[in-house]
Structures are given as structure tokens and as C-alpha cells.
Give the backbone structure.
Amino acid sequence: MVNQGDIFADDSNKKEKYKVLARKYRPRLFNDIISQSHIITVIKNSIESNKIHHAYMLTGIRGVGKTTFARIVAKALNCINSKDNLPIFTPCLTCSNCVSIEEGRHQDILEIDAASNTGVADIREIIENSKYKPIASRYKVYIIDEVHMLSNSAFNALLKTLEEPPEHVKFILATTEIRKIPLTVLSRCQRFDLHRLDLNQLAKYLQEIANKEGFEINEKNASLISKAAQGSVRDGLSLLDQAILTCKNTNVIGSDLLEKMLGIVNLEYIYQLFDYILKGSTQDTLKCLRDLYIKGAEPYIMLQELMEISYKISLCKIGNAKNLILSDYELDKCNKIAKKISVITITRFWQMFNKALVDVKNSYDPMLTLEMNIIKICYANFTITPEEILKSFNNEDNKGKISFNTSEQNVKKNPLI
């Protein structure tokens, strides 16, 4: 007779357990980590020369690999298959220590969430346990995540042990808010700043992961996810995961899907809207705004996109576009607009968009507020600036004579571009 429990066990083994992409593709070795070579070089040299610091402070935005980095350090320090029983830069990943660390069950590698263990009693327990030698490894490693959440008393209790820990103990502290860490703690640690990823680099990485999962995503669409992730690898992979799950009967991740999922606007529509505003064409501008709103674009997002375009045009205007990651279409549009307007005009637009953003955020009706602000901005070309007032007073022929003409006919005859 077949045991019913065995049947369920067999079925569960046949189906591989689902893992989110951020966990499935979590780096296992130092060389798998992207865009942090400045830190990896230091760690490599310290391991190879056997000059390993007793405490590391890892700081950076969410999702850039602080905890992942800490776990790899723990594996490197305790891998069994190393030469002369010393730490190794490239752990084997197959020994009992490496496997148990990756699975989060090693008795000598203690991960502590400082957000839920903030008090002195929690730190005293760590200090007391640190006196005992490791059970199955070279070093006992304490990984304290979100360490900035510790209370002042807890930090003070940790100071002495952090400065002179037992030889078999290593501390790896991680935080997203380095400014909240007391200087007395920072001075006792070797600090590493993990950088947020370059948008272009993250986009290429997301393309690679999508291909491994059997999906296609072009560079432009990968850049949309990369931009939304703001340099965070974990956020980027989570968004890619969502995009893959949203796909139906296709293995292509398209722009329409991403625009709806991310709540963003097609760039071509935004540049068209920007053109209408510069030309002072209020009717076309309002029609474009309403069309975008019907398609799902939020007023707040539309203004953010308009501000980004203003910024890109400004950099093109002053010849600093090399710092931007732009498609050929965007670069061409920005350069064309930059040739037709002054820096003063574009910075004025930036200020007005920023003011509109605040108004929209605090409004009972964001779309109505957006429309009223955009109407005002359409007439910006006919608003007298302080520079124009000074020029008027300095001009002997027209001294003190300033004319105002903000009629709609004048707007149409004298657009910004």
C-alpha cells in the first residue's frame, strides 16, 4: 500500500519551487556582483594578504547588495576547501559551510535585524555569545542589518566589543542611512559605500536576466524598468518579475505593457506635449494633456517627465549631454529644442513645472490644477523677466518703457519656438 504522504512528497519534488528573480539570481561570489569593483578589490587584497578587518560597515540605497555582500564575505572567511585553512576569495559553494550559509542555517553566521532588535539587552546577548568560539567554522560572523535602527544605548553597549572583538569574531554592519550612525561606531569600522547602478548598466543586466527566463525585452523597454528602479538591482528584478507575470500568450515584454504597469508616459507623447507648450498652443496642449490622462498617465507623472525633459535640454544647451543616457530619438529632440531657446527660458520652465508639481500634489483635483498651471506656462514667453526689465531701463531709447501683450493672438504669432 502506498503512503499518501509519499505521493505528495513525490509531486512536490517534481515541481521546482518558484523563486522570485531577486532571489534566484542573487550573486553567490564576489565576481558575480556588478558595479562594485572598488569594494571587491579591497576585499580581495585583504583576503589574499590575510589582513582582514574585524568590522565592516556597508552603506548604500536599498537593493544594491549589502546583505548579499555580507553573506559572500561570510562564505569567503569560512569555506572549508581553502588552501592552508585560510580564508579564500572565491569560496567553493559546495562544502558544508558554504551550503549552510547560503541556506541561512549556519550556527556561526548570525543575521540580526536591528529594526526589531534595537535595545541594550539584544546587544548584550550578542556580546555574551561572541566570547564563545565558533562551532563549525573559523570565524563567528555577526551580520547586523539596518544597524542605524539601534538605540543610542545599544550603540554605546556595542562600542567596546566592536573595537576589540575576540579574534574569532567578525562584524558586518549594513545600513541605508549612514548619517544616523554615531561617529564612534564609524571610526571602529572599515566603511564601504555601495554605489547605485548606472541606468544603462542595469538595463543591460535586466535584458540578460529576461533572456535567461525565455523572454525578450529591447534596450528601450529595459531602460524604462531601469529608470523606475532608480539604480536598485533588487527593485529592477522585482519589476521585471512583475512584467513577466503580466505577459499573456507572448514572450515579448512590450512598451505598452510597461507603460501601464509602471504608470509612465510614452516619451514621444511627452515631447509632443513639450513642443505644444513651447509654441504657446493652449488648445493643442490641453487636448494632449487630456489624451494622456485618459490613457492612464497621472498628472504628477506628466509633470515629472516634463521636468526631466527640461533638465536634459539644459544639459544639451550647455554642452554637457555626455552625462545623459539618451536614445537617439531623445538626443535628437533635445538638441533641436536646445538650439531654439535660451538657458533663461528653459530654467524658467523648470521653475514653473516645479511649482506646478507642488500645486498638483496638494490639490483636491490634480488634473484641473495641472491644466491651469500649464495654461499659465504656455504664456511664459510673454512674462517680463527681471533681466528684461534691467535691459529696458538701461536702454536710453526705451528707458522705463515696458509693454505687456499676453493676448492669445500674440501667443500664436510669437511662440517660443
Q: What stands out?
A: The radius of gyration is 29 Å. DSSP finds 20 helices and five strands in the chain. Residues 1-5, 7-14 have pLDDT under 50 and may be disordered.
